[in-house]
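Appendix B. Raw example, untouched.
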Amino acid sequence: MASVEADRFETFLGEDLGLQVRAMPPFQRVHHDVQCKSMRTGHVHGIFLDRCALLAAPEVVLSPCELEYLRSRSIHDHDQDEVLIEMKRIDSWLCEYLGSHGWAAEHTFYSKRSLLRDAIALRPDLATP
């Protein structure tokens, strides 16, 4: 049944919306969230860690770490620049922590989609269902 639904969705995207559709290889994603709340400002930031590995090629792995502002929990009005100042502080700590453990600490826009496209370009056999 899932295959029929996937076919209908692909048809809808291609024919009804006029989009180009290409199947990507399935992957497994393990996701961890860490929330950081500033006691001083009430700002809450999230650190999101993933491990994505292709099912057909488990050696193809992407492990991104993302930092995001989530919300503020405070009854006081704060300078909006404080959010960015705190994010920079957390980002600096995070980069230092990741680097000290031998993990890459560079900022990129490389995504799960980028990983899948690059994997197919290097190994076209991964694109076949």
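End of appendix B.
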